[in-house]
Design goal:
Elements: E1 5-10, E2 13-18, E3 21-26, H1 32-46, E4 55-61, E5 64-70, E6 74-76, H2 77-83, H3 88-103, H4 113-123, H5 128-139, E7 146-148, E8 157-160, E9 165-167, E10 174-176, H6 178-191, H7 195-209, H8 213-217, H9 220-228, H10 233-243
């Protein structure tokens, strides 16, 4: 891939542009099961009518797995928000509408969000009392079967040259309660140092979807605990603060 254009480098993976294709390559140590699950998640969501990249190939070169999909030309909502701050409300409205469209879809073959969260809580670096409390709370949540992106943030929405919004990076997709997906997005804003935008997002989502803010807030400690498992050190103290919030007023 040395002749191709490197777009992004993250721990364990690199993302290149190769003409009309986007190629995500993984280190040799990367879990094969996780790579194949990511490709399978994407393929399953492709069966909806959502605008998104489609998988073209899953292959191995020099012992490294890669996923090839079509490249979406355009700018991310994150870039557009930074470049056009006066349009923040307009972009945020589009962002929320897109997430609500995602939640309106059903993809029955995806893993269940609740089961994934239970596993993550069990693996989190928390004492037994905290884990018990979180497991109990999660078990008490309503069981839904809505499509959840799992990492829905403005950097994962591309406005294509055709003006269409495309949603990318379906590696964490599950089916479950939409409020958990919203809580995750809210946390991501805070982790990026954009708490004010996160608060504005949450209020707008709840208004447009007629969802109680308190209902989403009940998911925040659970979602924070699930993120704790693979979180970088600089995030952990912040996540622990959210996990320790027992009640919201």
């Amino acid at each position: 891939m040395s002749d191709e254009l490197l777009l992004v480098e993250r721990p364990g993976k690199k993302i290149y542009r190769d003409g009309d294709n986007l190629v995500k390559t993984f280190d040799k140590e990367y879990s094969k099961a996780d790579i194949l699950n990511e490709a399978l998640n994407n393929a399953r969501v492709e069966e909806t009518d959502l605008d998104m990249p489609h998988i073209k190939a899953v292959s191995v070169v020099d012992g490294c797995w890669s996923i090839t999909m079509n490249y979406i030309e355009g700018a991310t909502l994150e870039q557009l928000m930074a470049e056009n701050p006066e349009k923040e409300d307009e972009y945020l409205d589009l962002f929320v509408s897109l997430q609500m469209t995602v939640h309106s879809k059903r993809v029955p073959m995806l893993n269940m969000l609740t089961e994934k969260m239970q596993r993550k809580i069990s693996a989190a670096d928390l004492d037994a009392t905290a884990r018990y409390d979180l497991h109990t709370r999660l078990s008490g949540m309503k069981r839904h079967f809505k499509l959840c992106h799992g990492d829905f943030n403005p950097s994962n929405v591309i406005i294509g040259e055709d003006g269409k919004p495309y949603i990318i990076d379906w590696a964490h997709a599950t089916q479950g309660n939409a409020a958990a997906d919203v809580a995750r997005t809210y946390l991501l804003f805070y982790l990026q140092g954009k708490g004010d935008l996160g608060d504005k997002y949450l209020k707008l989502y709840c208004k447009k979807s007629d969802t109680a803010i308190q209902y989403v807030q009940k998911w925040i400690p659970i979602v924070a605990a699930s993120r704790l498992v693979k979180a970088p050190e600089e995030e952990k103290e912040f996540l622990h603060k959210w996990i320790n919030v027992v009640d919201y007023e």
